[in-house]
Amino acid sequence: MRDGARLALTTFTVVPLRPGRVDRAAAGVAMAMAPAVGGALGVALAAVLFGLGAAGAPPLVAGGVTLATGALLTRGLHLDGLADTADGLGSYRSGDAALQIMKKPDVGPFGVAALVLVLLIQAAALAGLAGHGWLPVFATVVAATATARLAATWACRRGVPPARPDGLGALVAGTVGPLTLAVATAAVAVVAIPAVPGRPWQGPVAVLASLAAAVLLVRHAVRRFGGVTGDVLGAAVELAATVAYVALAFR
To answer: What CA–CA distance (Å, rounded) separates 247 from 251?
Structure first.
């Protein structure tokens, strides 16, 4: 458990911890704890958003700085995965040919477009929270951030193969069981209930819609690449966060 918690923190944040045991058992614990790490990150991001709003920052500026803070706290890992996955899928190649494109250090046009659109949509959604009560704003940011990491948990469910015999995908793929998925999903759905006042159903629906989008992405990646990689996990995180923010933006 301790090694899994350490792996979860070092994988999903920049928390400087010494590496512990890294094996599939620890990876399974880490992926199960991913939503909790996301929730803690969401608390920090909500605090940044509140602080900027209190200081008088324009809503879109506050949203953009909040996203930049999230990128710093995660080393931009998920954004990098999104760009690489978009380039791999956009190449219309399959298998090793697509994986080779994803490994290149440069970012292609599909990756750039994906990054710009995702960050723009997320920043606009955060800006739209201006003027709402502290509890809905807090619940929205925490729920969206936790849902994003829950998407990675779902991407590592049993039956999903790795695309390569090594790397992060090979370590975590297929390590999460159905009971863990059910408990984690229910917990995040509960956190999302206060996100939209007067509509307690909208938060949980947003969580499920985000997971559905991430599952479809992972399924497509498995068809094209033969399995999941660390980049695919990052893309699932960013896609789920974007869908969650959009689904919670309607008030």
So the answer is: 9
Helix axes 109-127, 77-90, angle to 10 degrees: 130
Report the DSSP beta bridge partners of residue 176. Answer: 157
pLDDT digits (tens, 9 = 90+) for 45-98: 999 999 999 999 999 999 999 999 999 999 999 999 999 999 999 998 999 999
Q: What is the pLDDT of residues 87-117, one digit of tens each?
A: 999 998 999 999 999 998 889 999 999 999 9
Distances, alpha carbon 8 to alpha carbons 20, 38, 184, in Å: 11, 10, 15
**Helices 230-249/202-225 angle, 10° precision:** 150
Q: How many CB atoms lie within 10 A of CB 1?
A: 9
Residue entry with tokens 């599909």: 110
Coil/strand/helix, residue 54: helix
CA 85/CA 238 separation, integer angstroms: 11
CB atoms within 10 A of CB 168: 21
CA 218 to chain centre: 13
Which residues are 13's β-sheet partners?
none
3-state secondary structure of 15: coil
